[in-house]
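## tool: complex_structure
## caller: assistant
## args:
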Amino acid sequence: MIALVDCNNFYASCERLFQPRLQNKPIVVLSNNDGCVIARSDEAKELGIEMGAPSFLIESLLQQHNVSVFSSNYTLYGDLSDRVMTTLSQFADQLEVYSIDEAFLNLTAFRHHNLTEYAHTIRNTVLQHTGIPVSVGIAPSKTLAKIANRLVKKRNKQLGVYCIDSMEKIQFALQHTPVKDIWGIGSQYTKLLTGHGFITAWDVSRAPEEWIRKNLSVVGQRMYNELKGISCISFEDMPAKKKMVCVARGFGKVLSEQHEVMEALANFTAMVAAKLRSEQLATNTIQIFVQTNAHRSNEPQYFRSLTIRLPVATNSTNELIYHARQGFETIYRPGYNYSKTGCTAMELIPVTEVQSGIFDKENRSRNSQLMQVLDKVNRSFGKNAVRFALQGFGTRWKLRQLKLSPCYTTRIDEVLTINI
Amino acid sequence: MGFPSPAKDYQEDVIELSQYLVQHPTATFYFRVSGDSMINACMPHGSLLVVDRSIKPVSGMIVLAVLNGEFTVRRIVQTRRSLVLHPENPAYKPLVVTEEMNMQVWGVVTAVVVKYKYENNDRVG
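## result:
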């Protein structure tokens, strides 16, 4: 049997943990740049606030109902996610972290236990230790575990646990799952299936295998078997090796000065380089872009990206910034209001497999030593304590995060003060 | 190269204070206190608290509690009749938790860290 553990309204729960007065009160969390709603507490959902709603459109609604609004604090959510996952790892031999707030647990070793009881133990322990409420769905396959979890949230959120452990329960669960809510079914397949009269997952599971094989791909066939309770999707304990690293962000304000846009790009490129180093990867191709704000239709629009092939794969900040700058000077055009830029490292390879070039003039060992020192200093003295000149000290390109909560769990000078 | 150190075989890791203070890293959080109501429990104003959520609160422990939506720190005492939140300073009154109050224990305070702040740089002697 497989469990899917999912944190309830994760980002909202993280914020609430340190502001207990918000218990039972509506909370929303906004995306980067405070653009739109990306998480809601149950109370906010009940007010009819939609996922993805642009914050400026619902401002009056938020005020009217006294909704607490937060900028996304990924430092905090990341730490609490790590705590939840570490706590979960004690409960199974195999844990697959599926996203920041979801994990699959392989419970095969526990098949002789009372799994519903076991799920309650998992749930209570995570809540007790980390303060984060979770829902647990248990079933014979990953796809069914997803469905079980969805049913917990739809039907008995208070209970927090649902275990699909009989044919009757499979039937019940599938009958209460619309086709579009089956894990891995995109909008294309939803259209195809509903077009053929399949309304629930139960209908799909009763289709002739022949038809499924003919009309859906291998993925669809796997889903079909999973719905019947035959586990076909294996566990991935090891996260897949990254194929790309991208840092691209919108600015807090539009920028029209070349050096300001370059400064933003230099910072994003530096972040890409640091990410590569932390995973012992290097890149031999980067892609950069600049763009204006498409929503300001009355202003002249410009978008341009450029792919740059590097002579030798690298993860040094100085080299990557150098190449990004060369590229930037090619694609930058004055006279526009820029709203976003970014850098993507493509074709990643492990550092150990980097091949040197014949005409390579860079002093690579010196460079990598420099980067080690840079990372070490920045680890102890804070992000960007040491930086390249091009990164500058400007703040106009920085995210708008007006409602950012403190990093309560990762910065000693931001821990919560309690009046006693 | 010189001579190998005779101490090499006896080398141990240096003392990590957080290892000593923290039993359950995934369940441990830090808070700072403002005020002197717990002064007699070695918790002066400005102390850093180590709070462990995984420990079951037992009468006599010092806890971080949530009382009607607000955080507070008190010694929790179960008497025969009621649950009491005790300050550790005679200038403050104990609070009997009644039915109408909404009280939850957020975590158990397992350690207090106090750092001296020396501001006067004049040397003595």
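## assistant note: The CA atoms of residues 65 and 72 of chain B lie 5 Å apart. Chain B touches chain A through 27 residues (CB under 8 Å). Handing back to user.
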